[in-house]
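New here. Your pick:
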Amino acid sequence: MKRTLVVMLKEPRAGRVKTRLGRDIGMVAAAWWFRHQVRGLLRRIEDPRWDVVLAVAPDRGGLLSRVWPGHLVRVPQGSGDLGDRMGRALRGAPRGPVCVIGGDIPGITRARVAEAFAALGSHDAVFGPAPDGGYWLVGLRRTRAIPPCLFAGVRWSSYHALADSKASLPDHSIAHVATLRDVDTVADLK
């Protein structure tokens, strides 16, 4: 079965993306950084071993955007919190293992993605932790039903996000891959 890598992306508009970073460097500069970060990320992660799918927001604007490469499949993120949107991406992907990442993690490479998919060979789920208690990657092997409680009760944007997310996968074997840092503030750019 083909592997799918879903990249969660927002349209890079000033004041709509990287707003915490924008408070440090300005909203236009933060949107510019995000746009160029994602451009480089997409070049780094395309690989014949998996299909790259862009889960875009806002739904209509993201589907029609000229910012993202036209050859990549796009799907709308839909409504709800981050857990609702990631759950939809995990459930909606074609059959086979699926991993979901964000666009604001400069350290993601093909090797990191391959490591996550390899972990799904012997585990039901995989997480790529972040130093702030969150995570940069979540993946599911999908050989069993995805729990309806997936991401229920997760305290997003907190030190508890990873632990809460793992708790929403009862009786699943879980692997961890490398810890990578996302960019939320100017200090994270260094």
Observations:
- Residues 84 and 187 are 29 Å apart (CA to CA).
